[in-house]
Design a protein that fits this description.
single chain, alpha+beta, Sulfite Oxidase, Chain A, domain 2, Immunoglobulin-like, 2 domains, 10 helices, about 30% helix, globular
């Protein structure tokens, strides 16, 4: 290398080293619009129990992708403008032990995403549907408003997404708050006591519960789960323990038991999977 090239290289490295790091999101104490995203939980500089807000304009500065999805919101194809959920997280001051998040929705639904799940399934945050943002939602053909945000997954980004047992529970709409948690701490009640030495069979039931049933059914004494269904885990555990066939039928065909039921049907669950959920529920009764 001649002397001239050496100094050019040194100058280039100097420019790189002086370039500003990617700016972290500014967190605000007050919501500026209905389309801001609330964040809470294990965040550096945010006292426990307090909430901060991300401006939608900041989210729109992230790299976006336009995906063509079929039947995501209404029949047929829609173009959705998205930002990757991991790109959002990288701009937030998460604590080192924050290894999962809970997406909380306006209808009290909740969905859990671990770091491992996000790395494998690449969930994304929907900013616009057919070029239109949430201020114009619901999109044409939809009878409810999915705003302010939707989180979803798609085979375009994760080819194994369609094979996920509980894919529907990883596509929540009405998302308005992301809560950052330490998974082991938050879910300790379901990994200790009678559940500490869970068999593989019981552990399968626990995983199904956390990734599906958790979204609507809470364990109030442990602050675990969504409250959309207004049927806590204790009630379901009693049904499962004392009338397992009723429980299985309700999971698969809720309207067969109650024509007014609003619960989604899960006809895809096998007897083995539901027996595992029942085993988990019975174990929670000893907690």
């Amino acid at each position: 290398m001649n002397l001239k090239m050496f100094f050019i290289g040194v100058a280039f490295l100097a420019v790189l080293s002086s370039a500003p790091a990617l700016r972290a999101f500014e967190l605000h104490a007050e919501r500026s619009s209905p389309f801001d995203l609330a964040v809470t939980g294990r965040l550096e500089g945010v006292p426990a129990g307090e909430t901060r807000f991300l401006r939608r304009a900041d989210l729109e500065q992230l790299p976006t992708r336009v995906l063509t999805l079929k039947g995501e919101f209404v029949p047929g194809e829609q173009e959705v403008t998205v930002v990757m959920l991991n790109d959002v997280l990288e701009k937030l001051p998460r604590m080192a032990d924050a290894d999962a998040l809970i997406a909380n929705c306006t209808d009290k639904y909740a969905s859990i995403y671990t770091n491992k799940f996000m790395a494998e399934y690449k969930p994304f945050l929907v900013l616009a549907i057919n070029g239109k943002g949430p201020e114009t939602w619901p999109p044409e053909g939809l009878t409810f408003n999915p705003g302010p945000f939707v989180i979803s997954i798609a085979k375009h980004l994760a080819p194994n997404a369609p094979e996920l047992l509980d894919a529907v529970n990883k596509r929540p709409w009405g998302v308005d708050t992301l809560e950052f948690i330490n998974y082991a701490e938050r879910f300790d009640p379901w990994y200790s006591g009678a559940l500490k030495e869970a068999s593989p069979f019981l552990a399968e039931g626990r995983d199904i519960w956390v990734n599906s049933c958790f979204s609507c059914h809470n364990a109030a004494q442990h602050e675990l789960g969504g409250t959309k269904a207004m049927r806590p885990i204790q009630i379901l555990a009693m049904h499962a323990a004392f009338n397992p066939e009723y429980f299985k039928t309700y999971v698969r065909e809720p309207k067969k038991i109650n024509p007014m039921a609003t619960m989604e049907a899960y006809p895809n669950y096998t007897d083995k999977q539901l027996d595992a959920v029942i085993a988990f529920l019975k174990a929670t009764m000893a907690q």
